[in-house]
Amino acid sequence: AYSQSGRGWITQASYTFDPPFELVGRLSGIEALEGTDPRFVEFVEAQGREVAAGVNYYLNGHKFKIQADLV
Predict the structure, then answer these.
(1) b (16+ CB within 10 A) / e for 4-37
(2) What is the value of pTM for the model shown?
(3) What DSSP letter does each residue of 4-37 carry, written as one string?
(4) Of 27, 51, 55, 61, which one's alpha carbon is 20 to 30 angstroms from that of 44?
(5) pLDDT over 90 (residue 18)
(6) What DSSP string describes 34-70?
(7) CA gyration radius for the chain?
């Protein structure tokens, strides 16, 4: 049986305007390791990268927020 072995990364940056409004950008990826399940390799090649943007609105500091993401 094959394993589904890989490694990944994620990076995120954000900027808070006059609180409580924040813009967020995110990049992430995954790479299949050599010798792993061929179906996992196909999945990673098709869906292994993400670019996303988001908006956060803080209602009660960091205790409660409304968040929207576009992936």
Answers:
(1) eebeeeeeeeeeeeeeeebebebeeebebeeebe
(2) 0.70
(3) --EEEEEEEEEEE-STTEEEEEEEEEEEEPTTS-
(4) 55
(5) no
(6) TTS-HHHHHHHHHH-EEEEEEEEEESBTBSSEEEEEE
(7) 17
